[in-house]
Amino acid sequence: MNIINYLKQARRSANLTLQDMAYLLDMDFSNLSKYETGKKQPPVRVIIAYHIITKTPLKKLFKYSLLTMIDAVNSKTTSLISQLEEEMTTPKLKKRIVALYEVLNNIGCLQDISEKEQDGK
Predict the structure, then answer these.
(1) 50, 65, 76, 86: which has the fewest Cβ within 10 Å?
(2) Which residues cross the membrane (predicted)?
(3) pTM of the prediction?
(4) Contact at 8 Å (CB) between 84 and 96?
């Protein structure tokens, strides 16, 4: 299930119509419809509003955005480490590389949490 399904499911679970939700968010009905049908990516403001209005956990609403961001940051971090390790080593450069490895460690922890949540659904 992607973010689109979660938005629509959250709204319906709260017994709100698309018109009601559009009114509460002070936005055009047709734009909100595009978010719920996947024609447009919802902005963070809309996702947070769905959380507030429907009490749907942010983790659930941001799940797929989070996984995409984790992959992107992991790739960029690995690439930067490779570039820096090819340069002449200085104390300052070593600190940067250590910090980047810590970023990879943090990402690994987030991936573990995400995988556990997927298994536990």
Answers:
(1) 86
(2) none
(3) 0.62
(4) yes
d(Cα 22, Cα 46) in Å, to the nearest integer?
Answer: 10
> How far apart are the C-alpha atoms of 43 and 54, rounded to whole Å?
17
Query: What kind of fold does domain 3-56 have according to CATH?
Result: 434 Repressor (Amino-terminal Domain) (1.10.260)
CA distance 19 to 30: 9
State the DSSP code for 121.
Answer: -
CA distance 36 to 53: 15
Buried b (16+ CB within 10 A) or exposed e, 5-22: ebbbebbeeeebeeeebb
Alpha-helical (H) ranges within the chain are 3-13, 18-24, 29-37, 44-54, 58-86, 91-120
Report domain extents, the chain: 3-56, 65-120
